[in-house]
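<discrete_fold_record>
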Amino acid sequence: MSSIDEIRDARINKLKLLKDKGVNPYPAESKKELSLKEAVLNFETLEKNKEIKWIAGRIMSIRGQGAIIFITLNDGTGAFQGLLKKDVLGDEKFDFWNEVVDIGDFVEIQGSFFTTKRGEKTLEAKDWNMLTKSLRPLPEKWHGLTDVEERFRKRYLDILMDGENKELLEKKTKFWDTVRNFMKDRGFLEVETPTLEITTGGAEATPFKTYNEDFKLPLYLRISVGELWQKRLMAAGFDKTFEIGKIYRNEGSDANHLQEFTNMEFYWSYANYQDGMKLVEELYKTLAQDVFGTTQFETRGHKFDLGGKWQTIDYCETVKKETGIDILNTTYEEVKNKLEKLEIKYDGETMERMIDTLWKYCRRKISGPVFLVGHPKLISPLSKSMPENAELTERFQVIIAGSELGNGYSELNDPINQAERFEKQQELAKMGDKEAMMPDDEFVEMLEYGMPPTCGFGLGGEMLFAFLSDKPIRETQMFPLMKPKGVE
């Protein structure tokens, strides 16, 4: 078997031969008149009318020998078979094809449509042109990119050679189209907010740091989809807004987490968390049915049905039931000892971080879908307190397959209370909590001007799509971040 270098050298010689014959191996224009999908859909008419058309695509296979060659073309819309016959093309064009063409090249062929004895829709070529000469061979269909890292590094080949991957990514586009249409149909205005921020807000996560040379100012890549900005729009008089966009978190990678991913957040004035729960349940059911054609799923060892009425569970009651810890009446030492007894690793020694870790231990058993409510104020710095218990907040999370796949609030709009909570977050940061929320004095100033009662929600869209597809989250991204070759 020839090495990659030997194959490449042979193809470079063919490239030279094309140029010596006065043929541009990389022309800017194509004579293509039909996509291959159109050729399939309109085949009966094309065949009946004996139409002569140009089609084009990448050569995925070459079969035959002697005076007859069958090829398969792929143009991204579909595949189609071509037939080249020496007595139709003529000796010069046919022989030149054999001299310079390889699997992987992009070509255009002109001819008439017919059906073979085996029932294959085919175009019999009367002419052909080179569109792009490939210098490296495509992976073998059955023995190609088997190394996971190589697959993601050469994602373009992985998608090309595996039709299921292409369909998955096309389905993801439909997923976000469905989200967008759902929100717009209910009167939400799509907005764009900054991705570079002076202080990060809207979530508890470790940010990426950067620097603005013009302003001589350190900046952060955002960790939420414009939460504090969209709330400013509520103060500005907008009643419903949403944004679909990238967020960045400088944390670990695994089957469910990446550092760069797409989410959606909406903000709805004069609504509370209970209003948000009704809308969110409708959204998730719509996504399941319209994108996947079902409400029943199995993933990560869990089975669940998004159809029917979702149940509600309480944060404190769930933790107490699973661990025996009453988190509203406990001590630092009791929580720490429980984590150590359960052999649960935790990052950060603050009470907030340890309680959050204890909850994450409990949630892994919950298949859902359920709404988690009754979160302690300590871990919900942007949510209103419950009137009946100031230590709890009007917050809800979507729990599916042992994971949090959405997070919403009755947003805190008391400026004095918000400032106090930011101060508490600063105390946690000084104690070593890397995920503590940064203060935002300008946001507090906005609240002093007044923001109406508002429900906000963040859709864990990237994770939700991966869960409903039963795929690791990297599989659902077109180009996940990869270390360069040779970097440990």
